[in-house]
Amino acid sequence: MKDGRERFDLLLDRVWEIVDGPFDRNEKLEAICQLLRDGVAYYDWVGFYIVDASKRALVLGPFVGEPTEHVRIPFGQGICGQAAERKETFIVQDVSQETDYLSCSPRVQSEIVVPILKEGEIVSELDIDSPTLSPFAQEDRIFLEDVCEMVSGLF
Ligand code: SME
Description:
Blueprint: H1 4-19, H2 25-39, E1 45-52, E2 57-64, E3 72-74, H3 78-86, E4 90-92, E5 110-118, E6 121-130, H4 138-151
Antiparallel strand pairs: 1-2, 1-6, 2-3, 4-5, 5-6
Helix pairs in contact: 1-2, 1-4
This protein binds methionine sulfoxide.
């Protein structure tokens, strides 16, 4: 297995192939979730939330991992809702230290949420839970922001 940036670059090539491929948006988003989960050992639950702009809420879209009760999250609530409001990547290296956190599973130790923007407006989010403490490096942030940049073309 290749390490760091080289591995992320290979995954990014695969993401582009999926985005550019013949399937519909939900099929592509699910394939990207599977790719990320299979490709990075410390990524566990991987999913997309889709913005319901009129209600300022996030609605669960394609994901891989255990089912979650958090199928609808208002802007401002939890890590996902805070990231939506800020329109910025939100990394929580230890969820036990985050006061506004919506737990999906007691196994989760850390989380990264990357907003997907289209013409400056948030349209979706990529959410990744990890069972590892403090796993996310600057390389993860750059990689996942690149993924989301590509995915924004689907909206
Ligand atoms: N933990 C998230 C909720 C979504 S689950 O991780 C799938 C949050 O605090 O917003």
